[in-house]
Amino acid sequence: MPVKRKRAPRRPRDGAHSGTVDSTVDGTVDGTVDQRAGDRDEHDDLSPTSARGYEAFGRVMAALATEADFIESCRDLTWWRGADHGWHIEWRDGPYASEVAALLSGHVRASDGPLVTEKGQGSAGSAVLDVMGVRFELRAIDPMGRAALRARAGFWRLSEALDTTRRTNTRHPWEELLGG
């Protein structure tokens, strides 16, 4: 038996509240100001502040993606948008939150200077940053630190795998694939 899907009513482009609207001076039925429409526009996903939040998130994730050590060492890397329209980034193992905050402070830059300011002293487990006016909360669960990760035996490192200047006894992955 097919199930009919209900569709939400479309919101008008001018941001007016959907419903019965009289053509009074302020556009509401009883002449009072509609606070819900103002609140919705203020926190709408299409607002300029939301666009800045997503741009800041994109810059942070791009900076983290350039660090192979960070991406390879973290398990369960996750992120979500908080109720205050800030971002929360959380990972298991990997570097300390203060190390990631320092890394982001160095990598997220504009042409005229850094876009990151640290809010307070970061610890091993958590750090708070302000990136382009957007709050980022970094949280490391059971962190090991970058020094311990580099010294850890058997830890696969992308930089070592791509270093073709150093000859090793083992065959490279592309030699295995090409039969060389």
UniProtKB/TrEMBL annotation:
Sequence ranges of Basic residues compositional bias: 1-10
Region: Disordered, residue numbers: 1-50
Biased composition (Basic and acidic residues): 36-46
Protein name, UniProt field: Uncharacterized protein
Lineage: Bacteria, Bacillati, Actinomycetota, Actinomycetes, Streptosporangiales
